[in-house]
């Protein structure tokens, strides 16, 4: 366009076009009869792609300027479209997250209702039953029900926190891992008569600075997997060993089952979230997130976990935990939500 137009100049026309066609401003080249640098700068700042002085440019120069102007506008429009797409995607994601959070809030609320009923009835049985009916065996089972309901309530709370992206903390304290392992094995022995449990202790010092609730979740996942994938009558061996290296003291926890085993091609991915081994029958429930949670919790304690397995010959999961990490809260991020079903 010519700089000198009736009623306005080229720069003023560019301003008017930008106001009326904000998203589709055409390519523009300003033509003027004088080589005024001030006009050139003003034109370019107003949205012109080039500035040419009449009588000084060749046809080739004009063609080059037009091609460059059109390409600049095309790229600007493409970038603007991408920006708008990103904004729409971000808005849709925020709306989806809001809906998800609301659904999770409702779900956790509905899940806690039955848990409260279970806990209340377990307490009422203790109170209402005559003393002669409340045998040690029954009392143990009622305690197991109450403890399981409490654990499920904690897992629901952790799940809600994790899905909302809030930060969680590991609260380490001085604890005896052998006591926790003993309690878990006894609990399973009292509730499952289809498997033979074997607990082996190697060493004496199983004290360490760990988060009890997190390690309980690790044990729950590993032991529930061993039960889930082992045939009726199968052996489940839990080994706890104290060992020392030149640099630190460690506790080794092994959970060995006699179940399906894991195919070799699945072993590198066994701790990936949502991955399930290819030989797991559809009849065995699970979402493939439990082992990912286990690895996350173990690593937050400064430990490691590995698996050895052959298809058809069971699996052995080995956890190594350092015993002397300082007792301080450690951020666990958002990856430690309750993820019980594994493999």
UniProtKB/TrEMBL annotation:
It catalyses: ATP + protein L-histidine = ADP + protein N-phospho-L-histidine. Gene3D superfamilies: 1.10.287.130, 3.40.50.2300, Histidine kinase-like ATPase, C-terminal domain. Its EC number is 2.7.13.3. Residues 1-69 form the Response regulatory domain. It holds the Pfam family HATPase_c. It is an enzyme of class 2 (transferase). CDD domains: HATPase, HisKA. The keyword Cell inner membrane does not apply. This is histidine kinase.
């Amino acid at each position: 366009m010519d700089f000198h137009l009736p009623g306005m100049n080229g720069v003023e026309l560019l301003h008017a076009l930008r106001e009326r066609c904000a998203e589709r401003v055409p390519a523009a080249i300003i033509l003027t009869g004088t080589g005024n640098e001030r006009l050139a700068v003003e034109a370019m700042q107003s949205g012109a792609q080039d500035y040419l002085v009449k009588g000084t440019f060749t046809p080739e120069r004009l063609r080059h300027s037009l091609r460059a102007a059109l390409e600049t506008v095309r790229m600007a429009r493409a970038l603007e479209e991408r920006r708008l797409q990103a904004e729409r995607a971000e808005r849709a994601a925020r709306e989806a997250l809001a809906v998800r959070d609301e659904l999770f809030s409702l779900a956790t609320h509905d899940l806690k209702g039955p848990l409260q009923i279970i806990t209340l009835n377990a307490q009422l049985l203790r109170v209402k039953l005559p003393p002669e009916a409340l045998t040690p065996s029954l009392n143990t089972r009622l305690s197991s029900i109450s403890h399981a309901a409490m654990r499920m309530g904690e897992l629901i709370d952790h799940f809600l926190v994790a899905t909302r992206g809030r930060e969680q903390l590991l609260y380490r304290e001085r604890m005896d891992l052998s006591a926790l392992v003993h309690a878990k094995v006894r609990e399973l022995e009292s509730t499952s008569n289809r498997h033979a449990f074997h607990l082996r202790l190697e060493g004496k010092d199983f004290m360490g600075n760990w988060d009890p609730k997190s390690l309980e979740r690790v044990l729950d996942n590993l032991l529930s997997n061993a039960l889930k994938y082992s045939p009726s009558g199968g052996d489940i061996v839990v080994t706890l060993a104290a060992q020392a290296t030149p640099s630190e003291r460690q506790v080794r926890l092994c959970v060995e089952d006699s179940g399906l085993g894991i195919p070799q091609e699945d072993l590198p991915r066994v701790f990936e979230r949502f991955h399930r081994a290819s030989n797991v029958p559809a009849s065995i429930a699970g979402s493939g997130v439990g082992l990912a949670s286990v690895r996350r919790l173990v690593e937050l304690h400064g430990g490691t976990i590995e698996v050895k397995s052959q298809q058809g010959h069971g699996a052995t999961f080995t956890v190594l935990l350092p015993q002397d990490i300082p007792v301080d809260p450690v951020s666990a991020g958002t990856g430690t939500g309750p993820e019980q079903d594994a493999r």
